[in-house]
Every structure is written in structure tokens, then in C-alpha cells.
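pinging the channel bc i need a second pair of eyes. not urgent but kinda urgent?? the chain im working w is below, pasted from the shared doc
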Amino acid sequence: MMAATTATRVRAGTRRAPVLCQMPWLPLMLVAAAAAAAAASEQQVPLVLWSSDRGLWAPAADTHEGHITSDMQLSTYLDPAVELGPRNVLLFLQDKLSIEDFTAYGGVFGNKQDSAFSNLENALDLAPSSLVLPAVDWYAVSTLTTYLQEKLGASPLHVDLATLRELKLNASIPALLLIRLPYTASSGLMAPKEVLTGNDEVIGQVLSTLKSEDIPYTAGLTAVRPSRVARDVAMVTGGLGRQLLQRTVAPPAINAPVSYNDTAPRILFWAQNFSVAYGEHWEDLTSRTFGVQDLNLTGSSWNDSIARLVLTYDSLFGTMVTFKFTLANRFYPVSARHWFTLENLEIHSNGSVAYFNASQVTGPSIYSFHCEHVSSENKDGNLLVPDTQPSLWQMTFRDFQIQAFNVTGEQFSYASDCAGFFSPGIWMGLLTSLFMLFIFTYGLHMILSLKTMDRFDDHKGPTIVLTQIV
């Protein structure tokens, strides 16, 4: 129930059913704080509405976290409250307020003793209808007073607590009351929390006055401008250094995998890095392989049992070099399923062929195969084993993935990873634990095997004679 209440209010505020009236509201501000701040918080302020009437606000299905409420959307939220709700409208207009104020000074997670909004929180808990908009466009808020004046047909009346007690409000006569609340976070005379607490006391006294007179009302809390602005690195002292520190680094582009098609995609192959060496000279083929439209795949073929992917490079090490991946698909009765295996990898150059055994690259045919390192070098696992030792050719794939059977579209299926379940560290831990368990068991067995004497010397009887057994 609590999760449902929070989710309802996060989505830009909705009508709250009577059974949820006792749930706290401030935790929803934490969820919306990051999104509101990231969306240029210097132009948005929060708006909190509540009313003594029920059913004024229907759930807004198209709102989401981080949504900025525009003036047109705000009017759709306010129209039912003004047209169908109480004719007395109170607008608490604070000088400055931001969503971060609720995050920093609100009594979140049920800690209401430290809350600077205890009266506001209590009013929302008891109100039959409430609406919380974490981020409202500044222009929409600036025209809020004019909008309410036109809808109610009443001029705004600026009042304070003393003036409100002298007013005689009528439920049938529209009234628009504006109550200004200060926010002096930059004055240095009072801490922001003390100012917000004082403003909350004013809200509590005003609502108590209306409650004592039994006057229906609709109230709202918002601000003229935000109290906190988004961090602008250009305005920070030493701007150039801050810009360098806060510069956003673009994520590396991920190229599309190599795809062999006949009537449909048949073979997919991808690696984050594809490097090959002849002798001591290494070449990086990543940019020449993945995301390339005119990659030469001549000689590639596919059927249900054998798939061949052929990559040809015209000028590699000064000559034409061809790489052939041969994958076989077989049915194994023991597992009652088909498994594929990368039978071998061939490198053709200048009429010579270098073979690499890659039988460890295997997995169920319905899956793809993935491995962090597929290489002919010992330091990277040596999954590619050359037929002749030593070999002039070396190959290394990083973040290697391939699939040649049951390919659907241009996406890999679930990957069967080469990582073993038991790492060397796990084996060391298991063996050490078993050794310690054996010592403990042996020691416990020796202790349980100890026997005490069952015969004792009696000074009145004959002396016990212990016969020595040789």
C-alpha cells in the first residue's frame, strides 16, 4: 500500500484515495529531485495543491518522473479544482523554493521530528484531494495568479495571519487569498531550515483558522523563483578548470556486428577488439571489420550443419589475407540437444594456410558464444591453438561473440559464456575448507575416543595388579 501511494505521487501527483490519507508524501520528492534538477532547475519550481473536497484531480497517466509541467498542462490540472471545488482559494507564495528544499529539510523516511514541513505534511495527509507537481515551468507559475483571478472572477487579496482572522469568508462567494512567505537563504541571518520551519508554522496557523470556521478551501504552495540553480560550470570561479573536470565524456561508439545473410541473417560475429600479428608486427582490424558496409564476405556459406564465415582483407601485411571461421552443428543424445563448435580458424595468405584449433569455442546451438578473451597467446587463455609450433601468426579477440545457428534478426541470442563456474580462488577456498574440516573431524574423533578408568584401588581389598602385556 505504501509503495502504491509513493508511486502515485511521484508521477506528477494524482488524486489520493481516502484509504491512503495517512501515508507520508515527502519521500516522493527524493525520487523526483534528481530528474527535476537535471532538467534545468533554474526554470522550474514545485507546486503542491490540496483541497477539502474529494475527487478534484484524476490520475495523470501520461506523466512520468522528471516531467516538466507546462502552462497548458497546469491549466488542465487546475480547471476541475477551480470549477468544481471550493470557491475559496489560498495561494501560499514563497519567495524562493526548489525541489531540493524538500529533499534537504523534509522529514523523509518517517523522520518527522526533523522535518521543516510538518504542518504541510499533516495537511496533505488529511486532505481528501492532493496534487504534487515536483517541476512546474516558471512561466506557468508566473501566470498562476492571473489564471485564478480569471477563473474565480475575484481580485487577489494579499493577507497576513492577522488580516485573515478578521475576514469573514463565505463558502458561496469566491475569494482568492495570497499569502507571501519569505525565503532568506542568502541573508545569513537565519538558516534556510529555520526560515522554512517558520513558513510552515504560518501555513499551519492559516489552516487552523479556516478549520475553526469550517470553511471549505483549496490551497496551493509554490514560489516565485527557485532557491537553488543548476550547477553551471561557466559561472564557477576558475571556470576553465571546472569545465575540464566536469566535461562529459562521450561513450565509445559500438559498431554493428558482422552479419552474413543469404535469405535471412545466418551468421553474426562481433568483437570489441580484433587484432592479428604476423611475426612481431600487429594490426588492429576492428575498424576494418565491424560497422563496415563493404566488408568482403566472399566464400561464406551456411546450412543447418555447417557454417563458414570468410573475411577477406586486400592489403594486410602487404598482401591479401583471408580468415575462415568454420562452425559445425551436431546433435548429442546425452544432452538431447544440438551443440555448435568452432571447428577451426584458418588464415590464408600467399598460398599458405595456418590452422588454429578452436574446439573450446562451443555451446548450445540456440545460444551464442561469448568470451572476454579468445586468443592464441597463453596469457589470454590460449583458446586458439595453432597446429604448428611455433606459429608466425597470432590472433586476439577481446569481448568475442559469435552465433551461426538459430539467428533471429540482427541480435545475438542469450550468450553461453566461456567463464568457468569455479575460479582458482574458489578452488583454493574449497580445498582449504575441506582440509580444515578434516582436521576438525579427526580431532573430534580422538576426543570422543578417550576412555576413563573403570577400576580403582580399594585400600580394604586386594591390591590391583596391572599385568603388562608385551
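so DSSP finds twelve helices and 20 strands in the chain. and The longest strand covers residues 319-332. — does that match what u expected or am i reading it wrong
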